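Q: Structure tokens for this one, please.
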Amino acid sequence: MTTFDNREKAFENQFARDDELRFKVGARRDRLVGLWAAEKLGHSGEVAETYAKTIVSAGLEEAGDEDVIRRLVADLSGSGIADPEIRAALAAAAITARKQIMEAM
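A: Here is the predicted structure, written as tokens:
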């Protein structure tokens, strides 16, 4: 292998690691915001965990955050929690998720 081939392989490996990290952080973020929303809905224990899993699944429907936000807005519409608060909770959950994933590595 040439130096160029080695560098190309290293970049491919780094891209794969970064992509896996983004996926893990996104899934953890969606779970955390799902648990937050479950609490707002009055759920706890296994019901809250199950609800959080549905939010993680919603996050896999399309690229970006809008699928999760749409689901949360619909679910929380009767509780007085609006889009800006949901987006703030999602941002806070992203910070926490990244920290948790990085600590686990």
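A few notes: The helical segments are 3-40, 45-58, 66-76, 83-104. The CA atoms of residues 41 and 100 lie 25 Å apart.
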